[in-house]
Design brief:
Helix content: 25-40%
Strand order of the largest sheet: 7-6-5-9-8-4-14-15
Bound molecules: glycine
CATH architecture: 4-Layer Sandwich
CATH topology: Glutamine Phosphoribosylpyrophosphate, subunit 1, domain 1
Strand content: 25-35%
Structural class: alpha+beta
Length: 345
Amino acid sequence: MVAGIKRCVTGILVVAFGLIGIESAAAQSSDNVPPLTVLVHGGAGAMEEGRYTPEEERAFKAALVAALDAGYAVLETGGSAVEAVEAAIIILEDSPLFNAGRGAVFTRDGDNELDASIMDGATLNTGAIAGVTRVKNPVKLARAVMEKSEHVMFIGDGAEKFAKTQELEFVPRKYFKTEHRWQQFKDRLAAEKKSKQTQRAREEKYGTVGAVALDAEGNLAAATSTGGMMMKRYGRVGDVPIIGAGTYADNASCAVSSTGWGEYFIRLTVARDICAQVEYAGKDVAAAARDVIHNRLQSAGGNGGVIVLGPDGTFTMQFNSKGMFRGVKQADSSAEVAIYGDGAM
Ligand code: GLY
């Protein structure tokens, strides 16, 4: 049963068989040049309509638009897709609203441990970091790993030693102690003591920010950043710094950034599976993402979403949770953002 189909400025909202997602219509401009494009997400989860006040919604949307504008400004001035996704993510990391950078959730020990990754679709070069505690912008560190080291992933103290060699900005740990996250942490500790955990509480544990971009050279890039899973312990690391799970970019197929319950995204190599379906099975990005999110992830019991962008500028944003903070800015159109599952942008 098809519940409804609506056109948006740059895309088509599809709500069919319980699937929720935004898909782009034909993307190429009349001169066949793929359009400059940036997509961002700010996490998927239990954000059913009415959860946030109008004021909160405005604040989330303003931050998403600022991230899209920052990424797009890079592309418009001839910058690369890698520079664009980094610029977009920095805005989201600096915002206290999202679970990444400043707004990171707390670990079981009351700390913040940050993960990030970035990938260049032109070269398949990539960088990732996990478990850093004092680097202001983890995405900058991931990019430095990609461009200034011969390795792919650094963790913990080693990653921070490397950050010092790159003269990246460090902040005191209290920079990450935002009041609303601290309150969430205390509430969760109290609920844990009472052995109470609702489905909504489970879904709220995972937040992430991400960006994908297509530049004037036709190159794709993807980046993702997170505070990980609320109440995580024992150095737990999720999908975000795992290349092929939380992040993937290849000019031959697509660029993907994921958000959701990281363990499932790792098991299913969600980002790479979407790109592999595009590359080997010849699917379009929407069909590939629908299969992975609404069939494979759903059947496995995981939840979350992805933003996906192809080298021709076609894109899709798919999620099987109640909502996903998300947005797109493409060619000469203005930024479009949405939060809930109704897809209104
Ligand atoms: N997707 C974020 C995490 O599971 O860490």
